[in-house]
Design brief:
By secondary structure, the protein is α+β, with helices and mostly antiparallel strands. The strands form 2 sheets. A 5-stranded antiparallel sheet has the order 5-4-8-7-6, sandwiched between helices. The radius of gyration is 25 Å and the shape is elongated. About 15% of the residues are buried.
């Protein structure tokens, strides 16, 4: 029976986690290396908890959160609130551009705001616009945008936080 390299992990009584690498040697015998991966596993658990925390927050805030790839202006993420505001599911939105989802006039406005952000890096003050939403009609929105990464980075994206103010505007009038 051929001998194959193997990797395993064991947890010691004191809580440390040891990863064991075993490899057969030509001519017989084995080489075994043990590595203490306790800190690595702890960091991994902390990161996983933080990811769950952020995902829970992002999915449950009232503000629409939309992420786009800054290189091609395609949608890469929308939260539940953004799905509701846009009136489409993630499956209908992700991978598309504003031109594929909205009227030419609304798409032009969205792209103009996206390009403004890309030249100024951050747009922390909300910009209020009126747009035509294909599913929900004419809407008054307030949007803030921030860039994540830079043009040289692989994950150059930006995030837009959108609040639908239509009902507030109607109530105020």
């Amino acid at each position: 029976m051929p001998r194959e390299p193997a990797t395993s992990e064991i947890t010691l009584n004191d809580g440390r986690i040891i990863k064991i690498y075993e490899r057969p040697m030509d001519g017989g015998g084995w080489v075994s290396v043990q590595e203490d991966v306790t800190e690595q596993r702890q960091r991994q658990r902390i990161l996983e908890r933080m990811e769950r925390l952020l995902a829970t927050i992002i999915e449950n805030v009232a503000e629409g959160i939309i992420a786009k790839d800054a290189r091609n202006l395609r949608y890469v993420f929308v939260n539940k609130a953004a799905e509701k505001m846009i009136g489409m599911s993630r499956g209908e939105i992700i991978g598309k551009t504003a031109r594929e989802l909205f009227s030419a006039e609304t798409a032009e406005l969205i792209e103009r705001r996206d390009r403004q952000l890309l030249t100024q890096k951050q747009q922390l003050e909300p910009i209020v616009d009126t747009i035509d939403n294909p599913a929900r009609g004419r809407r008054v929105i307030s949007a803030r945008r921030v860039q994540i990464g830079g043009t040289g980075e692989e994950s150059h994206m930006f995030v837009t936080m959108v609040e639908d103010r239509t009902e507030k505007m109607v109530a105020a009038a």
